[in-house]
Design brief:
The protein is mostly helical. The chain has 22 helices and no strands.
């Protein structure tokens, strides 16, 4: 050994070391931020569950829902295991049926973003939703209720070994076409033909959450759109994609009054301050435009797009730019509406009272009964003038017309409901489902056809009871069959062993299954 003097090194203060905090979950990077194909937040959650080798429902139940506190219906782990796992819509029950809005603009979205950023230490997850536009977008007609995807995108990404994910733009209600391949988005599994919820217990990117089969099958029967519809969808994709793409580069988020400010500016610039002219130009009722200008309502995204196309501007510019740029074509188009009037009455004409009353008396005997609006158009006299000559006749005409419309509506609704009642559909639809099919409000059906509405509800409940009885009978038979198989194989038929062989393992805790288990165990001699 060499004898060397010990060397004293400078003191190092360990307290000055800065170590980054570890994240609770693996910090996977979002895909496509700053492009039209930005990943959706629900897709990110599914990928996060996959890299942790757990089901999406497990990740949500054990990691995310507890942090959301009173916002979720999570009361205990036992509740989740027994009531949610494996059941249809289980995740929706956990989050109060709000999973379809996770990619949107609501309070659920804000809470989810904050907790995911905390768990993963990945920032800017808000870019995976529409939350940046919450002040200027309405929730009406914004997001799809079911999952939608492009099989060609999944197919291409798998072949190139790219990461599978689901873009945010696929979740928008108005988007029916894939921006990449110009093919219709698919909403039902090609294997089981079922719709998928936006986020489910078994959600996995690229695979059906019901039958767990691959969704990237190319459907050659994908219907082609007409040239007009194709152009419309391309315009929708460009405008909505522009919003998604622009979010990371926004200098400031759009404020709520920007829509009111822009509408008033357009009214002044191209309609000389006349709201009636501008309302006709954008094809909207004057009261609707008035509410938008007074910030009492926000137009939904469909109305916003139609206005932007009429004004020859992009949706992004309309919602973000203070100044307005009006093309010459818009000035030319509005001239038609500036000269248009709802009625061109001759104010100088002297009206004969006897002739007006005679016209009203004839109208009162017509069939079908005309409305006062039809009479005003027919004799070309202002309604106020007609009413001043005979208020009673005008009231009688209006009452008769309203009664006619009411009876006609009742007849139409009765015919439609009778056709459904006489059909052999099984299981029978609920009144809510019938209302959705007919595009008539449930409360209107109950009001116009109360007896038929009750019959539909009763028939639906009867079918539900029959289905429940059939399910209980099948469960009873399955428990007996599996118990006998276990006994013949030399195994004692315990409940947990039987549950492993059932289609839905948790059904073993139902009273029907437990009762059947006790009966078969007595028959086989395991119990007295």
């Amino acid at each position: 050994m060499h004898n060397k003097e010990l060397q004293i090194y400078p003191f190092y203060d360990a307290q000055q070391l800065n170590f980054s905090d570890r994240s609770r979950l693996y910090p996977i990077s979002p895909i496509g931020i700053g492009t039209i194909f930005t990943e959706s937040l629900t897709s990110y959650i599914s990928r996060l569950a996959e890299v942790h080798c757990v089901k999406t429902g497990i990740l949500l139940m054990h990691e995310i829902a507890p942090l959301m506190g009173s916002n979720s219906n999570l009361s205990s782990e036992r509740y989740c295991v027994q009531k949610i796992q494996g059941k249809e819509g289980g995740i929706d029950k956990l989050f109060a049926n709000a999973t379809k809005s996770f990619n949107g603009i609501g309070e659920w979205t804000i809470s989810l973003i904050q907790n995911l950023e905390y768990l993963t230490s990945v920032q800017d997850l808000s870019y995976l939703t529409l939350i940046s536009w919450k002040e200027v977008l309405s929730t009406r007609n914004l997001l799809k209720k079911h999952r939608a995807w492009c099989p060609l995108c999944f197919h291409d990404w798998k072949n190139t070994q790219a990461t599978l994910y689901e873009p945010l733009i696929w979740n928008l209600e108005l988007v029916k076409l894939c921006p990449q391949h110009n093919t219709l988005l698919v909403t039902s599994c090609p294997h089981c033909q079922k719709n998928n919820r936006v986020l489910e217990w078994n959600s996995r990117v690229g695979f059906c959450s019901k039958c767990k089969q691959w969704l990237g099958l190319i459907n050659k029967q994908n219907s082609n759109l007409s040239t007009e519809d194709l152009d419309l969808q391309v315009k929708i994709n460009q405008n909505i994609g522009g919003l998604i793409k622009a979010v990371p580069n926004l200098s400031s988020l759009p404020y709520k009054s920007i829509i009111s400010y822009k509408l008033i500016a357009y009214v002044e610039a191209i309609a000389s301050g006349k709201k009636s002219t501008f309302a006709r130009f954008i094809r909207k009722p004057i009261p609707v435009l008035h509410r938008w200008c007074k910030r009492k309502n926000i137009p939904d995204i469909n109305n916003l797009l139609k206005m932007c196309w009429t004004l020859d501007t992009s949706l992004l510019d309309f919602l973000t730019k203070e100044n307005i740029d009006i093309p010459d074509a818009v000035f030319q188009n509005i001239k038609t509406y500036q000269s248009a009037k709802s009625h061109s009455f001759d104010r100088s004409k002297k009206h004969c009272k006897e002739e007006i009353i005679l016209s009203l008396q004839k109208a009162l005997k017509e069939s079908p009964p005309p409305s006062m609006t039809e009479i005003v158009t027919r004799i070309n006299i202002p309604k106020s003038t007609i009413r001043s000559y005979s208020r009673d006749l005008c009231s009688a005409i209006s009452t008769r017309h309203q009664k006619y419309i009411k009876n006609k509506t009742i007849e139409e609704h009765t015919k439609l409901l009778k056709e459904i009642l006489e059909s052999n559909e099984y299981p029978f639809p609920s009144l809510q489902e019938v209302s959705r099919r007919l595009k008539i409000g449930t409360h209107i059906l109950r009001k116009t056809c109360p007896e038929l509405s009750k019959l539909i509800s009763l028939k639906y409940l009867n079918d539900r009871s029959d289905q429940a009885r059939i399910r209980r009978q099948k469960l009873r038979e399955d428990v007996r069959r599996i118990a006998i198989q276990l006994h013949e194989n030399g195994e004692e038929p315990f409940g947990y062993k039987i549950s492993e062989k059932l289609d839905k393992p948790l059904t073993i805790i139902q009273s029907t299954a437990l009762e059947s288990l006790r009966e078969i165990r007595k028959e086989l001699g395991y119990e007295d």
